[in-house]
Amino acid sequence: MTPSTGLSESLFERARQIMPGGVNSPVRAFGGVGGTPRFIRAGRGARMIDVDGRELIDYVGSWGPLILGHAHPMVVEALHEAIGQGSSFGCPTELEIQLAELLVEALPSVQMVRMVNSGTEAVMSALRLARAATGRPGIIKMDGCYHGHADHLLVKAGSGVATLGLPDSPGVPAAATAETFVAPYNDLPAVEALLDAHGARIAAVVLEPVAGNMGLVPPEPGYLDGLRELTRRHGALLILDEVMTGFRVSWGGAQVLYGIEPDLTVLGKVIGGGLPVGAYGGRRDLMEMIAPAGPVYQAGTLSGNPLAMTAGLATLRLLRDGDIYRQLDRQTTRLCEGLSASALEAGVPISLARVGSMFGMYFQPGPVRNYEEARRSDTARYARWFHAMLAAGVYFAPSQFEAGFVGAAHGNEEIDLTLAAAQQVFTAL
Ligand code: PLP
Question: CA-to-CA distance for 131 and 203, rounded, in angstroms?
């Protein structure tokens, strides 16, 4: 008998009356897999408990931030202490300096940092800076990379080689995306062709160094280096959007893992330890163009919020001082190897990729190098897999095109339970 999800269902019904789609961010609504999203009552370590009292092993981790797991005692304790001191001042605090110093220490390409409240805001601001610094209007982004919901980044790529971007959502004027050029991911010649044709108007190339918003697509060898070289040659800035990969795929992020030095870096998720934080940073000469040091305006009532800084600091200090990344690599490798072996045994073609504690599993033989290839996946099969795993108490991303995350709280017990459930589910798919 399938255990009841009645309370989630009635809450979803209630939510839909007064909130668009019943949620505050679209992917939570299970549109990609169908069914009713679980409403969550609490989280502890690698698990969440839904409102019907069902326990779920969580591989979403709030879409990436919770690298230490839910309610890590040291993060909770730090927050308890901080909130007693006041929740926001609108004045500078030492906490902001401490977090900025940690980011600068971890990222050789970053000499100065500005804190904001979300990844969207951080990317948007970094692009404004890039346009100001170069005096050029254009940007190049990659098909299938997500950089938040700012107008000029909500662009669907055309098929084939690079195309000029068209708005991806009603409400985004064509003018807003007119300077957004799109190339397929992992396709250096496409970027080169764009730069050869439009180089004089391109302010920046922006991308996820490991693409985590089309499932998981790692950069091919030479791709990031090639982009670095091309952008230098054409006088454009290279912006790495490490909102997802920052302090996730390694201490620092993908730029440390792959040895790339971008001009600007965008951060979010992990650096806020589960509270709303974004940040952008990079070379001093660029960052000193930001107000009030320079003329490029960008501000925020709650930017550098003391609670958010506290959660981020507690998280990053634990990551810096512990042996966590090695453990994450080990557990994620075990998970991915186990999933691959079960799928193979059951005769289900999958393609699985992992970078650090991020992973993605496509229901197709692969390889998957870009969004066009990712889209060949059997999404109906993914939905069946997702729901069967959910029924077994394991929560993967409710979409084929999202990365999964292992956290420090995923121990052998959670991985073993997951693999045991997966073996049964693959066999029945
Ligand atoms: N950039 C990347 C790579 C992301 O994955 C996301 C969100 O998932 C964003 C930017 C936007 O961040 P936020 O949702 O905090 O606005």
Answer: 5
